[in-house]
Design a protein that fits this description.
Layout (H helix, E strand, L loop, with lengths): L8 E5 L4 H12 L3 E6 L2 H19 L3 E5 L5 H10 L5 E4 L14 H29 L2 E6 L12 H17 L9 E8 L5 H14 L3 H10 L9 H11 L11 E4 L9
Parallel strand pairs: 1-2, 1-4, 2-3, 4-5, 5-6, 6-7
Helix pairs in contact: 1-2, 1-8, 4-5
C-alpha cells in the first residue's frame, strides 16, 4: 500500500533506538524525510547513518539528525532552528523511573509531567497551525498501555501520560481534523526495548529470580506469547501518519499483543 506521504517532513523524537527508531525507519521506508532527535549524539548519528545507507537512495528520503534533549526549551528551539515546519510529528520521551509513589517528591513529578505531558503539548502547539494551513498534518504521541491499564510501579508514567491523553482528547476534536490534521496516541505494550530490560532487571534484583525467568513469565501473560518488535510498531505509526488514516482522530491505539483484558 502506498501511504501517500512520500516527500513529507517528519519530526521523530527519541529516535536513536527503540520504538522511536522503529517509527523513523518505517517513515523513511515510505519516502518521508525525517528529522531524528535524541539526546545521545553518538547513537543518534549511528542510527541516522544506518537509515541513510539502507533506505535513502532507494526511497529518495532525506534523513537529518539533531542531538538535543527535546524535553527542554533549548532542545526544542535547536530542533526548530534546523527546520521550523513539519507535516508529521511523533512525540516520544523516555519513561520516568519505576518505584513506589511514597518515595517520589515534587521534583520527580514535575520531571515526569514535563517530559511526558508538557513536552508533547509544546510540540503540538509549535506545529499544528502550520499543518492546518497546508491542509495536512499527523501527530502521533507514543504513550503507554498503562494509560488503559495502570501499572502500580509506573505511577509517574501513569499520571503524566494520562494527563496528555486527556489533553489530546480535547484538542484533536477542536476543529483541526476539518483542516486535515489528526492527533492520535499510540500505546505500546511490552516491546523488546531497553525499557523492558530495565524493568525486568529491577524486578530480578527485588525477587531474586533471573531476568529470563521473569521475561518468560511476562510473555505468558500476552496472548501473542511474545514481546513486540520495533519494526511492527513503526509500521503502525506509519499507517497512522498516512493519507488513508485521515478519518482516525483522537484515538488511543493499543499495540500490546492482546494483553489488555478489557472489552473497550
Amino acid at each position: 500500500m502506498d501511504l501517500g506521504i512520500a516527500g513529507k517532513w517528519a519530526l521523530v523524537c527519541g529516535s536513536s533506538k527503540g520504538l522511536g527508531l522503529g517509527c523513523a525507519q518505517a517513515l523513511v521506508q515510505e519516502g518521508v524525510n525525517v528529522m531524528m532527535v535524541a539526546r545521545g549524539a553518538e547513537q543518534l548519528q549511528a542510527s541516522a547513518s544506518k537509515l541513510i545507507a539502507s533506505y535513502a537512495d532507494s526511497t529518495g528520503a532525506s534523513v537529518l539528525f539533531c542531538a538535543q534533549d527535546i524535553t527542554t526549551e533549548a532542545g526544542r528551539a535547536a530542533v526548530f532552528a534546523m527546520r521550523p515546519d513539519f507535516d508529521i510529528v511523533v512525540t516520544n520521551a523516555g519513561g520516568p523511573p519505576t518505584g513506589d509513589f511514597r518515595d517520589w517528591d515534587r521534583e520527580d513529578w514535575i520531571q515526569a509531567v514535563d517530559a511526558n505531558m508538557l513536552t508533547p503539548i509544546d510540540l503540538i502547539k509549535a506545529t499544528v497551525d502550520g499543518m492546518a494551513q497546508r491542509g495536512f498534518g499527523r501527530i502521533v504521541n507514543i504513550t503507554s498501555s498503562s494509560v488503559k491499564a495502570p501499572i502500580d510501579v509506573l505511577g509517574l508514567s501513569n499520571g503524566a501520560r494520562s494527563g496528555l491523553t486527556g489533553f489530546v482528547a480535547g484538542v484533536a476534536r477542536s476543529g483541526l481534523a476539518a483542516q486535515g490534521v489528526t492527533i492520535n496516541n499510540l500505546l505500546p505494550g511490552v516491546f523488546d526495548t531497553d525499557r523492558i530490560k530495565t524493568v525486568l532487571q529491577g524486578n530480578a534484583k527485588k525477587t531474586g529470580q533471573t531476568v529470563e525467568a521473569l521475561a518468560d513469565a511476562r510473555r505468558k501473560t500476552i496472548p501473542a506469547r511474545r514481546f513486540g518488535n520495533i519494526e511492527e510498531f513503526g509500521a503502525i505509526c506509519a499507517f497512522l501518519c498516512s493519507v488513508q488514516a485521515g478519518y482516525i482522530n483522537g484515538q488511543n491505539v493499543l499495540a500490546d499483543g492482546g494483553a489488555y483484558p478489557g472489552t473497550y
